[in-house]
Protein: HAD family hydrolase
Amino acid sequence: MKKIKVIAFDADDTLWVNEPIFTKTQKEFKTLLEPYLTGDEIDTKLYNAEIRNLRLFGYGVKGFMLSMIETAIELTQGKITGSEIQRIIDLGKEMIEHPIEVLPNVEETIKLLQDQYELMVITKGDLFDQESKIARSGLGIYFSKVEIVSEKNEQSYLNIIRKNNIIADEFIMIGNSLKSDILPVCKIGAHAVHIPFHVTWAHELVETHQIEGVAYQELADISLLPELLNQFLIV
Ligand SMILES: [Mg+2]
Structure:
């Protein structure tokens, strides 16, 4: 008998590339502001605006776009031109329409797992954008459920498992963010596998003391997941 019945995957930077698109756009945003100012002040101000605006806009490209506009107006003391603001909006549109780059070994691995487990996606962010990414990734056919939440915390995971009649001990979450995919899941008595991605947004970073004593697994690559899941077999 298998102990784990449901495997949930994070989407951004677990199934496909996401953070590098933000990093690239932020670089272009800095170039756009070069006639006015340079330096790390832009990064700091933008990050502060993003965090301040999370409460109002939630996660995702649209909030990021508005935060870039707000930062540009603030840092140029209102001197930014209409056409420069248009360029920022275009940068955001390019992000939303950016081709989906599914990460290596993802499709092969979920194909292997689909017959033995119920597979789902749990992602946070903008509903429209995330639904579009799942559709364009071609991976949608493998998942029986897709949950798009505004925040990934203990309460949202509890809501998801209750709503879907899942037992916490039979549930495992796979993701690249310790803060969003691992810690809250372990805290509700479920299992979690961390697959680090090479870049992590500052907001998703956690202090070492926050992960001390939390039991989760770490894998270098998603292709190692089926083997790890076999360790959950109950004889
Ligand atoms: Mg992620």
User: Anything to note?
Assistant: Strands lie at 6-9, 118-124, 145-149, 171-175, 191-194, 217-218. The chain has a mean pLDDT of 93.
